[in-house]
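> forwarded from #structure-qc
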């Protein structure tokens, strides 16, 4: 019997996931993570942004490679978060300290129109509107979600397009 968290009878929700990496072959790590997201159960990839490069934000280490994807999913938000954490762990993600360099970072940015405030999950992502490395790729695939004023507010954070994912 399927759990309610993953039951295929649940309506599809569009979720947005931010990806980032700055250790190892970061671009390849992000590409592989996009493939893993596309293969999630009861989910399908709707769109993937280009890859973008950015300096670490409030952190040290090499530059990051970032992207954002849109998924149609029947997973609940907590089940999707658990899958994101599983993909991070499979990529060798370690958390020695806050804002540490990482092989892979997956953030659930939005889950439909849901608003969630719990110890494990806050939706929409509480800092996404402060980060150019999230807003620029999000605006590429879902411009309706990124007000021009939000992009203007992060214009001082340099983000450069690297290439398309495929």
């Amino acid at each position: 019997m399927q759990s309610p968290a993953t039951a295929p009878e649940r309506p599809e929700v569009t979720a947005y996931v931010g990806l980032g990496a700055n250790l190892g072959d970061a671009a390849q790590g992000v590409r592989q993570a996009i493939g893993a997201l596309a293969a999630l159960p009861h989910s399908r990839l709707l769109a993937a942004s280009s890859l973008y490069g950015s300096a670490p934000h409030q952190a040290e280490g090499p530059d990051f490679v970032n992207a954002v994807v849109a998924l149609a999913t029947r997973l609940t938000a907590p089940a999707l978060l658990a899958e994101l954490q599983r993909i991070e762990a499979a990529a060798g993600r370690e958390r020695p300290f806050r804002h540490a360099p990482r092989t892979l970072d997956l953030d659930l940015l939005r889950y439909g129109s849901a608003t969630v405030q719990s110890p494990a999950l806050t939706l929409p992502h509480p800092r996404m509107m402060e980060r150019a490395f999230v807003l620029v790729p999000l605006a590429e695939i879902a411009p309706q979600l990124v007000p021009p004023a939000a992009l203007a507010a992060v214009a001082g954070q340099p983000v450069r397009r690297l290439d398309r994912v495929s």
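QC bot note: The chain has a mean pLDDT of 89. Helices lie at 26-38, 77-90, 132-141, 148-153.
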